[in-house]
Design goal:
This protein has a domain at 22-100: predicted glycosyltransferase like domains (Thrombin, subunit H, Beta Barrel), CATH 2.40.10.220. It is built from one helix and six strands, in the order αββββββ. Strand 5 (77-87) and strand 6 form a beta hairpin. A six-stranded antiparallel β-barrel has the order 1-2-3-6-5-4. The model is unreliable at 1-10 (pLDDT under 50). The protein is elongated, with a radius of gyration of 19 Å. With 125 residues, the chain is mainly beta.
Amino acid sequence: MERISGDSFVDLSQEDFAQQRNAARDSLLLRALMRHAGLSEPVQVRVRNLSAGGLMAEYAEPLNIGAKVEIDVRGIGWVQGSVAWATDGRIGVAFDNEIDPKAARKPVGGGTHTPVYVKPPLRNS
């Protein structure tokens, strides 16, 4: 008997799911803002890894699995998702819609030249 499912994850084995989950995860360290229903103002978190489908961030406060969050990722903007797991000061967030994680690594400045304070001083010999 053939099984038909509208959910692509139902037909994956545990090994397939793990490979898909780990396939395109980027390790990085960047600051982001996060907000959720329990906060009056966004708080800063440190994003440790990022993929098209989610991220891992450092966040010391307890959050329930399934809690809705929004995270302002540099180069991307506010992204909505849900807490997939939470442990030891870290949370995993599954995004509602996929993103392009490479956009977070793009330079944020749009300058056309190197600022003076970055240039090494010239020495007269």
